[in-house]
Amino acid sequence: MSGVRDLQGLWPWLPRLATLVLTVLTLDYVLNLGYFSLVTAVESQFLYTVVALMVPLVFIMWPAFSGGDRRRVAWYDVLLFLLAVGTCGYFVYNAERILDNGWEYAAPQTATVMSFVLWGLTVEAVRRAGGWPLALIVGVAGCYPMVADIMPGPIQGFPSSPSQTAIYHAMSRESVFGIPLQAFANLVIGFLLFGVALQKTGGGKFFINLAFALLGHVRGGPAKVSIFSSGLMGSMSGSVITNVLTTGVLTIPAMRRVGIGRSYAAGVEACASTGGVLMPPVMGATAFVMASFLNTPYSTIALAAVVPSLLFYLGLFVQIDAYAAKHELKGLPEEELPSLKQTLKEGWYFIFVFVLLIWMLFWLRREAIAPFYATALLLVINQILPYQRWGWRDVTDFFSSAGKLFAELITILAGVGLLVGALSVTGLSGTIANDLIYIAGGNPLVLLLMGAVTSFILGIGMTVTAAYIFLAVALAPALIQGGGMNPLAVHLFILYWGMLSYITPPVALGAFAAATVAGSKPMETGLNAMRLGSVIYFVPFLFVLNPALILQGGWQEIALVLAQALVGVVLIASAIQGYLVGIGSLSTQRLLQWPIRLMLIVGGLAFAVPGGGAMPLGHGAMFALSLALTVPALGLALWINRGLLSSRREPV
After folding, report:
1. What is the DSSP-derived secondary structure letter of residue 548?
2. Crossing angle for the helix pair 13-30 and 189-200, nearest 10 degrees?
3. For labelling, which of 91, 403, 483, 510 has a CA lying 20 to 30 Å from the CA of 328?
4. Is 32 strand, coil or helix?
5. Taking the CB of residue 102, how many other CB atoms lie within 10 A of it?
6. Which residues belong to any copy of the TRAP C4-dicarboxylate transport system permease DctM subunit domain (predicted)?
7. What pLDDT is recorded for position 109?
8. Can you give the pLDDT at residue 609?
């Protein structure tokens, strides 16, 4: 994927003005103000307008090739930009005719030609903004309906002619302008603006300083700071790589100062940044697409994600604390840390704005307008207080950053829509679930493992959002129908496993980005990140097997399952790191350390995983298995440590 151009002259004003227009039109559409009803009265017309404002910008902002000129816009890019504007403008102008006359089934010749042009431009824009792998996937998938009847059994579908395929992609509500783009237009725009505004007003600096003030002095403090700050920053940015490069430049050097190795420090930052994208209240764009797929309020998705994300961070915190205790690492000196009082004095309003956002999300249930109110309040307070006031340059920088983000994400969502549309028009989205159930022999656990592996593999070649959308159409129905599993739990399961490629070698993009900051070996960093983030491999199985962990069920069951999960996560994380609070090192005796640690890992899993349902063992049997493994292991570790401790105290 080519890097973004450093636009010169008047070119930077294109994304800025397009972002401003998109923001105004979105407010008019979401609040139903009616000032711009010419393009916001009909949803399909508004969606065409969103694409018309942003997708053409890709040809200006991203060069055609990685070695292309990063400052000058080539003549052929200008032609593609104008062609995209004209093509999208045609659909904006004819949006009501498309709807009233059913053009998605039988369109005039001109509309058919324009559909082919839009199809080709979308694939090329995806190639520039999303990279070759994603472009190849959506490009091939988009052509699939034309050959669906000659494909082998499981992936055979109803065929369509080239012209039928093109008009379906361009004018139906199931393809380019399907659920992914609809979710963006209805929900995501406001939250992305809020995230950019937070970063540009100094929100990132505030949360990092707050984390250092609270945790910098404790053992392994900078690593714990990384958890806190990256969790909050990732929630704002929705991007693992951006999160690593933003917070990592501060947390990784601080971790190095207290004695943490380069690759370990980079692994901590990679894990913390990955978890941040799964952390409410502002999760990545995928969560909003999920809300549209499930026809569920976004607040329900965010609430369900609270416990799993906290369990992941608990496992990471326990491992870091164990590492610090094991290696006797101290925190940073108090005098080098920012003042908590001064930090809160200068940045209290960031917390206040978050409180407003959460109140509007969970109590007022106003997901669509909550981020706009929060952004407006943030900018007003920011201009009143003297600490981070914006000048004209900051305003233009805000719209430039938001424009780049919008253009990239809208293009990728439009491209993924081609894949969804291909499955829809051929009927494959309705039959593939039955084929998967048949392949798995109707076994829910086998289906889950298939889902985990598929999500991980697709997460390597696609963005998380793209991988999630494909699997939400193809795999989720199989898990829900064949496995009888909770729909929300299934969709979160797919999201979590799609994220794991960021910390799992051989890809581990988040870990490799952190390795660049730390100056460590990429593969070694990836392995450290995989071990540190190991809890995240188990957590999706916990909540998909018992949805009480995502707050689906009675409070008594939720409390019991949560308590079991907490104990299980602490045991697993401690065993992986080789140190348990209250007992000490689990690695004192070389011969016995691995049996002890393995028993604690398996016992912790048996304690956390609910019995019954898809599991071959019931609740009682799982609990008995856990006790049979953990009690002897804990007793043996305690005896070894206490015995060695007493022997050290004996006088010579």
Report:
1. G
2. 130
3. 510
4. coil
5. 11
6. 121-553
7. 95
8. 85
